[in-house]
Each structure stands twice: as structure tokens, then as C-alpha cells.
């Protein structure tokens, strides 16, 4: 029995075909030799070995991937070269080659991946939109201007000039990559890298479109109208499907995200769907009670301030806040009261206040006799006076 050498076998010579032979020529040569050397027809041991070589050659040359390895000077069936195990060509021996290990771990990364497509999805875009509180609360249709890539109308995304077409890359034969075989102590390693001539596309553009320079898209400014729903908050994003960047080669456009930024309001501050404001009332109004007119975001409300209202008191107006974004109803409006104490009094005002203090037993002279400021503070916390 012959022993196979470590050098790469001439699979083309085994079948008696040239390196430029087509798939049909390889198949016809194989059938002719298989009928001649089949063990049922020719029981000679040498013929049996020849028949194994014929099968191995057809297995390699009928597989585009293995044939590429042969064309690069390698042997895909050599031990450690990604071929069959010790059981013979096409057999299922207990060992696998280095190529099989690489394929198992990296998903065939060392094999042919094929050309990458020129048409690819576009990227998403984001736009900042500033709105007033009234607009975020009740919604608005806002005009926006977007600078994005759009489909080239001259070539409709093809990237080629009128009347021309893509051409198969001569450097890689349309595969989009070039391969090389290296011999290492582990066996033969087939590596692939993108073709530098066509950038991995497998095709070239001999005559690019004059408008887009072959990209299939151009940048332009577009005007859109975005519908802002009632109740949006600062920082929220609204998605406009396929209004972003058109992809290379006229690929599907990405999405446009409109990010809401709410301008500060002169009167109201917002916490979720609730609104807060501060109203200053005179000391006398807080003591005697009064009626206030509060202007909300969409109406006017009259509220009663009870007599004896203390500084820091809060009044709640139900359902006068921001509408809920999801669902029905609205938040509340909280009115925080600041009681204003007069800082300057004329003689008559001071006299009247002192008379008032006497009627309540709160004369300033008497307070001063109770031990000064810290004593008065202690008495106030203890509930005296």
C-alpha cells in the first residue's frame, strides 16, 4: 500500500483536468475514472488505491472552498489541514484537523465569508427639541429641521452613473476577500482578509454617480413636523421610524429620535405631573383670611385662604397639573404660601400694632422681660406664652 506524502497532492492531475476546468468537466472526468477503477470492476489493490485518490480529488475540486485552498497551494485533506481523519478521504476518523477546530470555535472564520453587501441599514439620528411647559403639558405639533443622508435620486441608491453597472472585482474574483495558506507546526492555516481593491464588496464601480460619488446617498436638510403628545417630560425621546440616516447603497433608513427639553417656567416648577408655585400674602391677609385668584396653565381658579394661615402652608388644587402621558386625568397644583411681614412701619402703623399686641397680651416690653431671645425661643418650643 502506498504512503501519502506530506506535500500537497495534485488533485487536478489525479482527475486529468486543467486548473481552469469547469464543474461539468470535473464531474465528467470523475465519472469516467470511477467506472474504470471501481473495486467491483477492477479488484487490483493498486486500482483500489487509485479509486480512493479519485474520490478524494473529486471531493476537493467539487467544493469551492476546498478548491480555493488547492489553488493557493494547500491541501485541505492533509493531516492537520482541515481534511478527513485517518479513516481516509471522506472518512470519519477519531481525529479532526486544525481547520475543523478553528471552524468549531470561530464559526468558520478562516473560511470564505463572501463579499459584504453594498446596501446596508442606515444609522439612527437624534435631535434636541426645546419646548415650553404649556407645550409639553398639552402637546403640540412642532416643526423640526433635520440634516441627514437621503437617497440619491440620480442613481436611486445604486451608486453608478446612468447606463453603467457594477463590475466584478478582478483582484478577488468577486469573493470580497483574498486567502493565503501558511504552514505551521499545527498544520496548514488558511487565513482570509478583505480585498483591498474592492474594500470587501466583491464589486467595483468603474463609473460612479456624479451626484453621490458612488455612495448611493447625499446629505440634505429636511423639514418635518413631529406630533408631541400631552404629558411628555424633560429628557423623553419620541421615535420617528425610518426618518434617520439612509444607509449606504440606498439601504433602509434608521430612526430619528426627538429628545424633549423643557424650558424653565417663570411661575411653575414641575415634579412629574404635579405643578408647584409660590404665592406671597400679607401678614394681615394670612391672619384675617382672603381670597386669591390663581392663574393655572389653562384656567383661573379662585381659592380661599383661611384666617390664621401660617407661613409655609400649602394649598392643593386637584387635577390642575399636567395631563398624564399614559391614561386619563391630570396631576395636581400645589400653591405654597409665603406670609410677608412688613419691614418698615410709620408711627401710626407701629402704634396700632402695639395696641393690637396689648389686646393679645403680647406687648414687646413684656417679652423682653422674659429673659431675652433664647428664653423666648425656649418658651415657644415648650408651648408657653
UniProtKB/TrEMBL annotation:
Domain called CR-type: residue spans: 139-221
Binding site for Zn(2+) 1: 152, 155, 209, 212
The record's note on its domains: The J domain is necessary and sufficient to stimulate DnaK ATPase activity. Zinc center 1 plays an important role in the autonomous, DnaK-independent chaperone activity of DnaJ. Zinc center 2 is essential for interaction with DnaK and for DnaJ activity.
Main location: cytoplasm
Ranges that cross the membrane: none
GO terms for biological process, alphabetical: DNA replication; protein refolding; response to heat
PANTHER family with a match to the protein in the record: CHAPERONE PROTEIN DNAJ, DNAJ HOMOLOG 1, MITOCHONDRIAL-RELATED
Zinc-finger found in the keyword field: yes
NCBIfam families: DnaJ_bact (TIGR02349), PRK10767.1 (NF008035), PRK14278.1 (NF010871)
Record localization: Cytoplasm
Co-factor binding details: Binds 2 Zn(2+) ions per monomer.
Residues annotated to bind Zn(2+) 2: 169, 172, 195, 198
Described function: Participates actively in the response to hyperosmotic and heat shock by preventing the aggregation of stress-denatured proteins and by disaggregating proteins, also in an autonomous, DnaK-independent fashion. Unfolded proteins bind initially to DnaJ; upon interaction with the DnaJ-bound protein, DnaK hydrolyzes its bound ATP, resulting in the formation of a stable complex. GrpE releases ADP from DnaK; ATP binding to DnaK triggers the release of the substrate protein, thus completing the reaction cycle.
Gene (name only): dnaJ
InterPro entries: DnaJ, DnaJ_C, DnaJ_domain, HSP40/DnaJ_pept-bd, HSP_DnaJ_Cys-rich_dom, HSP_DnaJ_Cys-rich_dom_sf, J_dom_sf
Alphabetized UniProt keyword annotations: Chaperone, Cytoplasm, DNA replication, Metal-binding, Repeat, Stress response, Zinc, Zinc-finger
Family indicated by similarity: Belongs to the DnaJ family.
Ranges annotated as CR-type zinc finger: 139-221
Single annotated GO MF: zinc ion binding
Domain J: 10-74
Domain of life of the source: Bacteria
Protein name: Chaperone protein DnaJ
Pfam families: DnaJ (PF00226), DnaJ_C (PF01556), DnaJ_CXXCXGXG (PF00684)
Organism: Micromonospora inyonensis
Quaternary assembly: Homodimer.
